[in-house]
Design brief:
single chain; mainly beta; five-stranded antiparallel sheet; four-stranded antiparallel sheet
């Protein structure tokens, strides 16, 4: 007979993972694994390896595990390749039925991100932000604080998010992203120099006027740190001019930044964590570890709504 409980992934080692290529799952270090998502067709189990800042993929048949997002990169920008983009504390996972998009909640970045697990050849990379502004100084309808569990309703195109820090359950409409020009200056530019068509293919916003796209100069003529002009440092008689002069020739800046989904507050619930959708009965179950209970609420009853940052709930 089969043993009732077996370990399928993780070792007793606390060393950082080194499985950017597949290796035996029982020899791979996990640190505080949390959310799970199953690809039943391919027999793959996705694991939110929260303390290692990675999403791992367990090939159940082969008994091997590899990293699919997080990697060793340091960039938080959108459009990074999945193994280069930085995940800080992945917690919740949800996989769509087409097995192409894996949604990941990052409790430290305060965002929900989408990882293209099929590695489609789209210019710009495979990690983009779906919702959450990334900071606590965000417009109310874009604000997430410590997002946790996720539940996807593909019939309505809604992604439900346990917004633990704000004490509420939110719904993000995946088909209705926003390109808020007033807030764009507070978002990091995802890609520099991308074409408008490639940006649109990623479902992102194209903006040639984004601050990151402009060549900015200090008063002494030198480019600001981080900006690399094509032609730098005019020399005079073999020596650097004082002050050095930086200039750009023939370069146009184009930026592509994430299309954020405005969120609607569905319920006010203290410290929600896990979520699961009961689509047949139109209900969502929510775990509350601080209250030692699991709640259920029915969708479509309009008990809570948010307008201009004010949440109103009917009795």
């Amino acid at each position: 007979p089969r043993p009732p409980i077996v370990t399928v992934a993780g070792s007793s080692s606390s060393d950082p993972p080194d499985d950017l290529v597949a290796r035996p799952a029982l020899a791979s270090a996990l640190r505080s694994p949390m959310g799970l998502a199953m690809d039943e067709v391919a027999r793959k189990l996705y694991i939110a390896d929260s303390q290692n800042g990675r999403v791992r993929c367990l090939d159940i048949a082969a008994g091997t595990m590899s990293t699919v997002a997080g990697g060793t990169g340091s960039s938080f920008r959108d459009g990074e390749a999945a193994l280069s983009g930085k995940l800080f504390r992945p917690v919740g996972l949800e996989l769509n039925s087409a097995r192409t998009d894996l949604y990941v909640s990052d409790a430290v970045q305060n965002r929900v991100r989408r990882v293209d697990v099929t590695s489609r050849p789209v210019v710009g990379g495979t990690v983009t932000t779906i919702c959450g502004f990334g900071t606590e100084q965000a417009p109310f309808e874009l604000l997430l604080l410590e997002p946790q569990g996720l539940a996807l309703d593909e019939a309505t195109g809604q992604l439900y998010v346990a917004d633990r820090g704000s004490g509420r359950i939110q719904a993000a409409n995946l088909s209705d992203g926003l390109c808020p020009s007033a807030d764009a200056s507070r978002l990091e530019c995802a890609f520099d120099g991308i074409s408008e068509a490639s940006c649109a293919a990623l479902g992102c916003c194209f903006d040639a006027e984004h601050p990151d796209c402009k060549s900015q100069f200090k008063q002494d003529g030198r480019a600001t740190p981080g900006f690399q002009p094509e032609d730098v440092l005019t020399r005079r008689d073999g020596a650097a001019a004082v002050p050095p002069i930086s200039f750009v020739t023939g370069r146009s800046g184009r930026c592509c930044y994430p299309k954020l989904r405005a969120m609607t507050t569905l319920e006010i619930i203290d410290s929600p964590r896990g979520l699961v959708l009961d689509s047949r009965n139109g209900a969502v179950y929510v775990s509350q570890p601080e209250r030692n209970r699991v709640l259920r609420f029915f969708l479509g009853q309009g008990r809570c709504s948010s307008t201009l940052g004010v949440v109103t709930c009917s009795v």
